[in-house]
Amino acid sequence: MDEAEVDHTKPIPAFYCCYLLRSTKKHISLYIGSTPHPARRLAQHNGDSKGGARKTAKDDRRPWEMVLLVEGFTSRVAALQFEWAWQNPKLSWQHPVNRRDLELDTTCDNARAAQNNPKAPTTKRRGRGSRRSLKYHLEDLHVFLRSPYFSKWPLKLRFFNADVYQLWTSWCDRVDGLLPDHVRLILDGDCPKDHSHDEGDLRVRNVTYMKADYSPIHDYVEKANFMLDDPEDLRCKVCQAQILPQEDLAVVCPQVDCHCISHLLCLSTKFLNTAKEPDQLVPIDGNCPACNKVVQWSTMMQELSLRNRGPNETRAILRKAKRDGAKARGRVPKTSAAGEVGSIMEEQGHKSALVGSSVVDTGDNLNVDFQDDASLDDNWAESTEFDMEPDMGDASGAPETESHRVEIVIEDSDTDGLGDLG
Fold it and tell me: Where is the composition biased (Acidic residues) (predicted)?
């Protein structure tokens, strides 16, 4: 994979998702895209802010609504891979029909070569008709989530519209294949609450309230830094050997009341052995060796990458926690607004991306100018290796030493000609 696509010196992004748009005026008009900030992206599609794809700019289709999100991507490249496959099901080799036809074509080619007969009949790949309806998009989504490649990713589905969820369940009841157990469903928006999908703590009701920053793991980051601050007699819960935070890659259990610390390799080996998946290289989840609760590997890798690659972000999170603690105790520092902004900017290492016009609240009382959507290069797919796993386990990079480096980069896809499916 091109190093320009995946920067291994930066932490795992706070959020990335693929989304399905539907026109509120013409329900047959649909659009598939990817973004690290759904609320901002929806505003762009609806013309409320600068940006958005040209194909969604027609007034007879606005406003658009995000009816479905596929969350949990650990990099922009991973989200783009899934987006491209979902947009192009007749071309993606992750679709079983395409894989079967490709095998038939290869067999036929080999037979013709062996016979050396130029007039031998050819085998054409079967067309599967239009895949532009909502029904087909949901069917393809179900297929991709079960594919050998994407099924290993820590993804979850968030439905905002009850009719879309109803169509999804009707397909799930008819299809033979089942989704992997780790794929979580979040019934949000006007979807009826389902006790079989107990994700009430993750409901936001509206896409405008989606958390697209590190705020969901602020407490976890604070806890991990506190536990690793005193390196004396820290021992791995798996191998019982001593852990040296400055030398070893250590992971901390994200459960609030658990104080388990383990070597990265020790815990990943334990999780993989328990999963009993011989072809799986990166764990999806596992039971903590101390509290025995199921923990998500991607969450631990996100915290570890922040700790090792995002010193500025980590300091900002810890600073916010300190301020919140002071407020809770009734001892709020008396500083002017200008002084507070100055302190925050100093803490962030003067990080600012002054290349766009959209201002987004990151959740840390910081208004950061994010980069507007940049169109993808026409040959981006050829420069991306689609047989690579998203980067969930490599967090061995050394901490950044440049305090002025811009760490926050927000980029959406803008693949006109692929995404507008109406």
Answer: 370-392, 409-422
